[in-house]
């Protein structure tokens, strides 16, 4: 039960994803170092915590630095997002639940020309996050195959709308 909303404008991406898992389980995937590697990358410095900062290696030493701006356990999480060759952007998460389903809303702002690439990347990361929350993490080597698939689907969708 994954993607339920995909919105974009010139520089903002918003994705809503529903997961058959408790809010605490999904929150753990967003914040605990042992789970970050299953869906985002390897935490190499710091912690995803209130007022904290952290660095995640996304593979081959390509590292993203972040500073936590908002941290409300099992509700909201916001942090800066900075790769060495990109401008600083902002990633925000909000969680809500109904019955046994957690709805995760991701907002990534400040993207401008990076929007399409991040759209496809976040769709893959959220697929990996959901698999982790369900207890069946996907192998990292599947990331770029899925990314290519989402990019092709999105390109076809763009072509049909023009």
Automatic annotation (TrEMBL):
SUPFAM superfamilies: Bet v1-like (SSF55961). It comes from Brevibacterium aurantiacum. Residues 21-130 form the Activator of Hsp90 ATPase homologue 1/2-like C-terminal domain. It comes from the Bacteria. InterPro entries: ASHA1/2-like_C, START-like_dom_sf. Gene3D superfamilies: 3.30.530.20. It holds the Pfam family AHSA1. This is Activator of Hsp90 ATPase homologue 1/2-like C-terminal domain-containing protein. Belongs to the AHA1 family.
């Amino acid at each position: 039960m994954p993607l339920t909303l995909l919105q974009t404008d010139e520089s903002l991406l918003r994705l809503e994803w529903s997961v058959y898992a408790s809010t605490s389980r999904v929150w753990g995937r967003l914040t605990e170092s042992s789970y970050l590697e299953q869906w985002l990358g390897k935490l190499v410095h710091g912690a995803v915590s209130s007022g904290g900062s952290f660095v995640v290696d996304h593979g081959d030493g390509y590292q993203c630095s972040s500073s936590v701006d908002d941290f409300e356990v099992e509700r909201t999480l916001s942090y800066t997002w900075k790769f060495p060759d990109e401008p600083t952007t902002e990633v925000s998460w909000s969680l809500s639940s109904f019955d046994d389903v957690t709805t995760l809303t991701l907002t990534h702002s400040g993207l401008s020309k990076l929007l399409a690439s991040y759209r496809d990347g976040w769709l893959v990361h959220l697929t990996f996050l959901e698999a982790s929350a369900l207890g069946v993490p996907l192998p990292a080597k599947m990331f770029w195959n899925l990314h290519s698939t989402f990019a092709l689907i999105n390109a076809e969708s763009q072509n049909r709308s023009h």
